[in-house]
């Protein structure tokens, strides 16, 4: 019997976006994706911004932008698609106005993701003062690893964040260089949104972002968390 056979839905609902969980047959259902911008000083500088600590800002990707099959299809309407390697935080519960000292209680686990960006389209949007979604929230723009539970790795506060393209080192930083730390991100977001179980946060990228082309192999990771291997197709 289909989900629409009883007339409950106008058409078959889409599948719930989800991520694999290390050591479990269960999957992590994704509610929303929040991404923090310019959270590493060196990356802020390379993007032409002041690296001084300013209030954090976030943009969103769509949950169904996630891909876990190790493939990134080069998107249409762009000639300048960039990689950005990031640690990913997966929440097991949410709320509003979460205190910083309780924020980590809401974390289920961590992973590694790529915030793939149509940089040319993002640049045009910036010039016009428009939202970034056309450059950030396109199909398959969020390749992601499995989620590693906190019970296995704890809460990483330091560890190399790195990315290689076809074996060449392109990005390298450390979690301890993040301007806004994970508890601060969770607390700040909860002041403006009602966070929920299944929310995912991309925590920012170090310097060295760059363009990709079809056939490139991207390998990156966060030491102490996991690695991610993606082929541009």
From TrEMBL:
One of its GO terms (molecular function) is hydrolase activity. Pfam families: FAA_hydrolase. It comes from the Bacteria. The keyword Hydrolase applies. It comes from Skermanella cutis. Keywords: Hydrolase, Metal-binding. This is Fumarylacetoacetate hydrolase family protein. Transmembrane segments: none annotated. The keyword Magnesium does not apply. Residues 33-233 form the Fumarylacetoacetase-like C-terminal domain.
